[in-house]
Amino acid sequence: MPRVRLKKRIRKRLKKREPKLIEIYERKFIETLKELRIPLLMLHTAITIGTLGYMLLSGGDFINSFYMTIITIGTIGFGEVVTGSETPYGRIFSSFLALAGIGIFTTSVTVIVRVFFKEDIIALYRAIKMLREIEELEGHYLICGYDKTSAWLAKTLKKRKIEFVVIEEKPEALKYLQEHNIKYFIAEEPHKRSVLISAGIKRARGMVVNLGEDARNIAVIVTARLVRPSKEDFYIYSFASGDGSAQKMEELGANKALVPNKLLATRLSAYIFHTSSAFISDLFDRIAFGEEADIDILEFRIEPGSPLIGKRLRDIDLRKSLKVTVIAIRKPDGYLDVTISGESTVEEGDTLILFGHPKNLRNAQKVLLERAVSLIGGGG
Amino acid sequence: MRYKKILTDFFILMSLTTNISFIVSPSGYELVITVAMNLAATILKIGEGKVLSTEMLASSLVADLHLIPALFLFYLGDQVEAVGLAQGALAANVISVVISIIETVLSAFTEEEE
Closest approach of chain A CAs to the CA of B109, in angstroms? Predict the structure, then answer.
């Protein structure tokens, strides 16, 4: 009985699981290294036979025998340096060693050099190294598909120092990824679960799906949602060809599906409608789209139990203490109150719209979250 | 019959046995054969992806790095040090054999399952 139990336990351990991408790459790398075995073994056999043969001829002179073997099979041929090699037996042995050994030596060296300098082994090594680095990432974004839009997105994320991993299967896109100096990329099909897991989907904050076709976008969204079911913890933004597909994508798991043409038209129409106030319209756009480096907007939700509940904005005085301005309050029912004053009271479920320098906003968020109590104590 | 397994196990065991015989009665030929056997075992383990095989490759490399200096030291006159290094290599050889046995047992279980 215990033997059966042990067998079961071992079987369970050995049960096949889905391999990780890094494991597949490592296996490929090892398979390539396997090619070294036969030439190395051939070379090793030739050297061993040569050394032992000369040792027998010279009565056990290892160092000279080894040297003689190397200069013979390596076609150097400095001369007969081993005692006994000048005898008829020695010359017969040297002739056969040279005949077999030179062929083995040249073939082996050619194969070894080819394996080491083949493009595959270097590319594989780089891919494995990159996947190991990706395993360390946390709170990053995944960009599936790399075209001009993704390139702009990558540029913006880089500017904001947000880490991201690009997944693109087209070999022609890899050239651009290297040209654009993209730090992390995976050259695989993004709809595969193992690929998404290797890109760190379990630790990522969100994902952008831009594969150019609705069907492919949907396949990736669905796969990603199966791994990360919560829309609150993991954001999926996708591109869609029309309103209908956008709606389907949102129903299937995307937090937001954008129709690029519609988005562009909306932005252009905003300029047309506000021709007299083009600067302000542009400024808000730039802030909203993250193009303004010195100003940003942050939403801060007042959670139940927050010490800010019931306080007046004048009492909190975020402008003085944290150098950020409350420009509006969004009520839980969705109403946006833009006529706030110092007398406005913060209520549970409100969302404060904060305006200020990105650095100050980040600091304010941290302080409001972590040190809310002490802030209230000092301010009020 | 697994010819590759026979060949690998043959070299692993040969390096262990010749190493023991060298330690018991030091002879140059035995040391050369030990080094040759050990190097062959190492080469045969290159490119094996299994966890235990990589362990075996590591222990074979350790034995190589003991035996090759031992070989040169032996012929340069320091026989005591050469035997000492060969004893170090023996430990690595024993580990190789143990790992090989474990690997065989585990593969027997998986074969049965298949």
Answer: 7
The reported pTM is 0.62
Q: How many domains does chain A have?
A: 3
B71 CB within 8 Å of a chain A CB: yes
Structural domains of chain B ordered from first start: 3-113 (1.20.120)
**Arithmetic mean of pLDDT, A60-86:** 90
Does the residue A68 lie in any domain? yes
Provide φ and ψ at A87, rounded to 5°.
Answer: -75, 165
B19-51 pLDDT per residue, tens: 999 999 999 999 999 999 999 999 998 877 677
Q: Are A229 and A236 in contact (CB under 8 A)?
A: no
B94 touches chain A (CB under 8 A): no
Q: What are phi and psi of A76, to 5 degrees?
A: -85, -50
The enclosing domain of A99 has a CATH number of 1.10.287.70
Please report residues of A whose CB lies closer than 8 A to that of B32. 48, 51-52, 55, 62
Please check whether residue B17 is in contact with residue B9, taking contact to mean a CB–CB distance below 8 angstroms.
no
Establish if B77 touches chain A: CB-CB under 8 angstroms.
Answer: no
Full domain range(s) for residue A329: 294-379
Of B39, B47, B72, the CB nearest to A34: B47
- pLDDT (tens digit per residue) in A84-112: 888 999 999 999 999 999 999 999 989 88
